[in-house]
Design goal:
holo-[acyl-carrier-protein] synthase activity; AASDHPPT_N; Ppantetheine-prot_Trfase_dom; 4-PPantetheinyl_Trfase_dom_sf; three-stranded antiparallel β-sheet; alpha+beta; Ribosomal Protein L22, Chain A; magnesium
């Protein structure tokens, strides 16, 4: 996980730009808002940083170069049989990534306020009832937790928003399917990585994630 704020500095932004792919550079240049450009840069850097920990890279050089391809719903995956699966997410001033040897999804969100109408529309009845009761949590925090759990699942399976959000339930540590057509065992974990944000991960393994913060200095040390 990383903070995009340092990349708001034009000198730092320019210094880090060579360490992302040309495709991402082109995407960044098309973005109008500075914050969006910083998020995209940070996401590219986070991905490259993690891949180099595995001894591979998306850039030409000494390490084995890999390439990204995209699934039917736009989920990025590495080409070839690397055995490395990943997913990225961003919200507000933070970008998060998750890496695994099996399919995985992640979603980080800034805590949203007053989202009961959204929950009524998209959550299954069991989730909506739990949200109304609060389960000893503030409604805004609890909504965001449930939303990130749902997002992490649909990103893990690569189906995007085409999947009916009310067709599965995320109240427990394992996704519960409510309609036919979905299979497999998927496990959920939620975290409070920093004040005002919720992060959830969906994976085929019921294991806790270790959240590692990557600073601007760590990027610099890795790349320069």
């Amino acid at each position: 996980m990383t903070d995009i704020v340092p990349f708001g500095d034009e000198k730092i932004f320019a210094q880090m730009l060579p360490f992302i792919t040309e495709d991402r550079k082109n995407k960044i240049m098309q973005l109008k808002k500075k914050e969006d450009r910083c998020r995209s840069l940070a996401a590219g850097l986070l991905l490259e940083y993690a891949l180099r920990e595995y001894g591979i890279s998306l850039l030409p050089g000494k390490m084995q170069q890999m390439y990204l391809r995209f699934g039917e719903k736009g989920k990025p995956v590495l080409n070839g049989k690397t055995g490395i699966h990943f997913n990225l997410s961003h919200s507000g001033r933070y970008v998060a990534g998750v890496f695994s040897d099996e399919e995985v999804g992640i979603d980080v969100e800034q805590i949203r306020k007053g989202q009961m109408k959204v929950a009524e529309r998209f959550f299954c009845p069991e989730e909506y009832l739990a949200l109304q009761k609060g389960k000893m949590k503030k409604a805004d925090c609890y909504f965001t937790e449930l939303w990130t759990r749902k997002e992490s699942y649909i990103k893990a399976v690569g189906k995007g928003m085409a999947l009916d959000l009310a067709s599965f339930c995320v109240l427990q540590d394992q996704v519960k399917f409510l309609k036919a057509g979905q299979t497999g065992e998927w496990y959920l974990q939620s975290y409070d990585p920093t004040s005002g944000y919720i992060l959830s991960v969906c994976a085929k393994k019921c294991t806790k994630c270790e959240i590692q913060w990557i600073s601007k200095e760590m990027f610099t040390q890795k790349f320069i």
